Amino acid sequence: MQRDLVERARQGDHDAFAELAGAAISRLDSAAWLILRDSEQAKDAVQNALVRAWRDLPTLRDPDRFDAWLHRLVVRACIDEARRLRRHRVDVELTEIHAPAVAGVESAIADRDQIERGFLRLEPEQRAVIVLHHYLDLPMPMVAATLGIPLGTAKSRLHYALARMRTVLDADAQIRPDLAEGRPS
Amino acid sequence: MTTDDRFARNLSAWLVEDGAHRVPDHLAEVLVHSAATHQRRWWSSPERWLPVDTTFRPRLFNVPSAGRLLAVAMLVLLALAIALFAIGSQHRLPAPFGLARNGTFVETRDGDIYATDPATSVARLLIGGADYDFAASFSRDGTRFMFLRSDGRPSTTPGGDVTLTAYVANADGSDVRAITPPTKNLDWFEWSPDSTRVAYVSDKRLYVVDASGGSPRLVEGTGPMFFPTWLPPDGKEIVFRSEGPSPAIFAIPADGSGRRRALSTTIRPNNEYDFSGLNVAPDGKRVAFTRWYADGQPRIHAIDLTSDTLIAYPTTGIGQRGAMFSPDGSLISYARLAPGNDLQMAVADADGSGAERLIGPVVPGTADRAMDASWVFTPDGTGLVLRIGDDVHATMYLVPLDGSPSRIIESGGYEFIDVQRLAP
Predict the structure, then answer these.
(1) Rounded to whole angstroms, how far apart are CA atoms B303 and B281?
(2) What are φ and ψ of residue A2, in 5° steps?
(3) Which residue from A26, A175, B187, B385 has the highest number of Cβ atoms inside 10 Å of its Cβ?
(4) Residue B22 and residue A26: Cβ atoms within 8 Å?
(5) Which regions of B30-184 does DSSP assign to beta strands (E)?
(6) Are B26 and A145 in contact (CB under 8 A)?
(7) What SS3 class is residue B164?
(8) DSSP codes, B198-235
(9) A145, A166, B162, B361 from B156: Cα distances, Å
């Protein structure tokens, strides 16, 4: 089904492309938001990526690789967007986590709160690897293909991103022992 | 469930929760833009023309012609000339220690190894392909380099094991061959002074392997160790740091024929992080290292092996790290940390007799980001090749020791610099 849509879109059928874009935009928008942490930037990145996808679709050699190709375009658009605005202050949207006040889950909530703080400290390139692997569930070879980098580079980038998050969390926990012990502040 | 598992699960759960609330409302806007955009022609992408061999059909039979025979004869003569030149050049290898002429710069980018011309910044691929290759390091005679290759199975878990294989290639990138089997946690390797062997660490144990092939040999009796460095000038012993709550610096015969011996009997460790980053002077008289003090800052020191005394290198900064002796052993270089974690390179007399001299750019530091800097002396001893940045954004400088302005060699995702030594 998707292959047929891709083939039609490659031949200039804009309705087919609209169907592909409609099916993918929610996933792409979430991924872009996670990487950039800014709604407007994420919207711009996804828009640029999808317009570019339409423009370049005829040059896509393998229709079965459409999803990976689209992810690559979005991630690259995110990184371009981040670099363009790197010197500007990024206003961070904080998402409130509505969790049930049940004993035993407090520790996990605190962990996620810390995870968000650690994640915010990462560079967009590092966030991209984490989002591709841990959010879009792409296996590492696909992450490497999506980013257009060797497998070893993708693995080391993920390794360092996670290690950096953990370093930040450890430092955070030392400063705020109440969080380290799983108690909400 | 391990801490890593919990961390990964919480990370995935948080990503799903955080991304779930997104309700994109700009599809219509996207489609307006895309509809107004012309699609590229399919043939405009060069990728579609690859691989070219689908359009190339070699002839099965070739009829020799007079011109071709002449060309073959010329090629034979050329090969003979190259062989004669190579034989004639064999004695012109640099001595293992001391000043040498600067040769090729090698570096890693995205898992491939390149040779870079420092004058033009033009990079030429030496080792490419799908494997992840990195950490090229020239032999002391400059004829070969060693590098590490990921076998494709490094763990993605923080703190997990990494399996690597060591390879050796000729300086021009030819004759690539593995010198170790795939090895868990292979780390910190160094060429022997005579360029025939390599010492390396795997899981805190010391191995020596012949650079021309053969089985690696475990050097027994070190205990948990790191930073193996051949002791000049003869390289009969390997210096290392013993790992543990009370580290020390030892030397042990490289051929496994004897027991380890302590290089200092008077200098005690400050803590378990002491004596890290060993660097041995080319004359074998001093061993430099980093000490960590109670204020949390690192300082550079050296042991004078002839007198078993501790040498300090006074600094105007708040810390020093990364000791490295110059090729002739007269100077020591290190990264000087200033308040705010600003970083600048410094050189000082190796015997600790003079003040430090600051050279090169000042790199602003940040409190929440570790500065990634690496450097080597040029073999002619006139400067440092300094790389600052991460594996995506880095700048490489040529920093003259005489205080004249630094020059940017290149910018990009280059790592792991080394410079070939050539006969003066």
Answers:
(1) 10
(2) -65, -35
(3) B385
(4) yes
(5) 101-109, 112-116, 123-127, 132-138, 144-150, 163-170, 177-178, 183-184
(6) no
(7) strand
(8) EEEEETTEEEEEETTS---EE-TT--SEEEEEE-TTT-
(9) 16, 14, 9, 35
What residues does B337 pair with on adjacent strands? B319, B343
Contacts of B54 (CB under 8 A, 6+ apart): none
B111 contacts A58? CB cut-off 8 A: no
Q: Are A130 and A162 in contact (CB under 8 A)?
A: yes
**Mutate: best of A36, A40, A50, A107, partner B, most B CBs <10 A:** A50
Token pair recorded at residue B358: 């600051």
Could you tell me which of B143, B218, B208 has the C-alpha nearest to residue B179? Answer: B208
Give, for A162, the enclosing helix (H) or strand (E). helix A151-175
Residues in chain A: 185
The pLDDT of residue B240 is: 96
Question: SS3 breakdown of chain A: % helix, strand, coil, rounded to 5?
Answer: 75, 0, 25
A43 → closest Cβ in B26, B111, B132 = B26
Q: What residue ranges of chain A have pLDDT lower than 70?
A: 59, 61, 84-111, 148, 172-185
Element (H, E) at B191: strand B186-191
3-state secondary structure of B364: coil
Residue A118 corresponds to which tokens in the numbers above?
Answer: 């650690």
Q: How far apart (Å, rounded) are the C-alpha atoms in residues B308 and B229? A: 19
DSSP state of A46: H
Q: Is the pTM of this model over 0.80?
A: no
Note whether A29 and B34 are within 8 A (CB).
Answer: no
Which element (helix H / strand E) includes A144? helix A140-147
| Six-digit token string for A132 | 């591709």
Residues of B in contact with A43 (CB under 8 A): 24, 26
> Which of A17, A47, A59 faces B26 most closely, judged by CB atoms?
A47
In chain B, residues with a C-beta closer than 8 Å to the C-beta of A153 are 110-111, 132, 391
Supply the pLDDT for residue B90.
56
Contact residues on chain B for A65, CB-CB shorter than 8 A: none
The answer on pLDDT for B276 being more than 80 is yes
Do residues B346 and B388 touch, judged by C-beta distance below 8 A?
no
Instruction: Give the integer Cα–Cα distance in Å for B392 and B6.
Output: 29
- Nearest Cα to Cα of residue B125 among B135, B137, B112: B112
Greatest mean pLDDT among B43-52, B292-301, B367-376 lies in B292-301
Nearest CA among B150, B185, B149 for reference residue B167? B149
CB B376 within 8 A of CB B324: yes
Contact A25 B7 (CB under 8 A): no
Distance CA A33, CA A41 (A): 8
Task: Find residues 94-153 of chain B whose CB sits inside 8 Å of chain A.
Answer: 110-112, 130-132, 134, 150, 152
DSSP H/E element including B398: strand B394-400
Residue position matching structure tokens 């779930």: B20
Residue B257 to residue A104: CA distance in whole angstroms: 59
Residues B296, B300, B303, B309, Cα dihedral to 10°: -70
Shortest Cα distance from B92 to chain A (angstroms)?
38
Higher pLDDT, B179 or B23: B179
H/E element, B33: helix B27-35
The DSSP bridge pattern shows strands B357-363 and B197-202 to be unpaired
